[in-house]
C-alpha cells in the first residue's frame, strides 16, 4: 500500500506504452517558491515536510514546467512544502544545494547533468542526514553521489532506440544536435544513436540562443548534403531545427527527444518523424513522492535501482492521443 499513489500516477500518465528499454534539455536561478499543485483529493495526514527540487533548467524550456507540475501535484497530495530552484550553470546549482541544506530541508531532489560540480555539496547534504533522490540526468552516478534512487530514462538506451528506429527506416547520415556540451545525458543520447547508425555526426550548438541554434544548424545542413535526418535533443531545439531545414533547402527529415504541445502537434501533422519521451511529469512526481515515502516509513523506492520513466516512442500513430494530455500541461 505504501507505493500505491506512485503506481497509480504511473498508470495514469503512461499513456504511451513504454518500450522494454530504459532521456533533457534544459528557468534560471529563481528564488525558492512554495509549490501548490492542482492534484486535489485528500492531503496526507503526515507532518508537513519541506523538499527542495533543484534542477539545471535554463530559461524558456517548457520541459521543466512539466517536471515541476508533477512535483507540485505530489507535494499537494503529500503535505509537502516544495522549494523549487534552478540554474543551468553547475557551480550555481551547487550553491542552490547548499542553500537547501541551510534551509534544513527534509529531502533534496536534484538533477545531475554535470555531476562532478555537485559532488561536494551533495556530500554535505548526505552528511547532514538529508535524503537525496536524483531525477532526469545522472543515472550512472546517482548512487555514488548519495541518492537512494533515480527517476528518469536511461539516456544511452533511449539513444539506441532512436538509432534503431532510424536504421529500420534506412537513414544513414543523421546529425545529432547537442545544445549543451558536457551534459552527460545529452552526450549519451547521441552516443546511443551513433551506436546503431555509425554515420551519425555530432553538431554542438549554443542552446541558450535559438537564433544561433538555427543559423548553426542551417550552415551544417547546407554543407552536409548527405545529411538525411537531423535530431533535436529537446522540443524547443527540434522546433528550431525545422526552421533550419527550410532555410537550408534541405531534404533532411527531423526527429526528436522529449515533448511539448507544439512538438506533439508537429508529429501529428507529419512535420516531425517521432520523438522519444522520457515522461518528465512522472520524474517530478516520483522524486517528491519517493522522498515523502522515505520520510513517512523509511521506504526506498526502486530497491537500489533506477525507476525508469521512459523511453516511450511517440509517432504519428499515437501523437493525437498524447496531444490531449500535452494540452493539459502534463505531457
Number of helices: 11
How far apart the termini lie comes to 27 Å
The neighbouring-strand order within the major sheet is 2-1-3-4-5-11
Globally, the shape reads elongated
Q: Write down how many β-strands occur, each being a DSSP E stretch of 2 or more residues.
A: 12
Estimate percent helicity.
40-55%
* Class of secondary structure makeup: alpha/beta
β-strand percent reads 15-25%
Which CATH class of the largest domain applies here? Alpha Beta
Topology as a string of helices (H) and strands (E): HEHEHEHEEHEHEHEHEHEHEEH
CATH topology of the largest domain: Rossmann fold
Major sheet attributes:
6 strands, parallel
Report the CATH superfamily of the largest domain: Response regulator
Low-confidence stretches: 1-40
Q: Assign the CATH architecture of the largest domain.
A: 3-Layer(aba) Sandwich
Question: What's the number of domains?
Answer: 2
What would you report as the Rg, rounded to the nearest angstrom? Answer: 19 Å
Report the average pLDDT across residues.
87
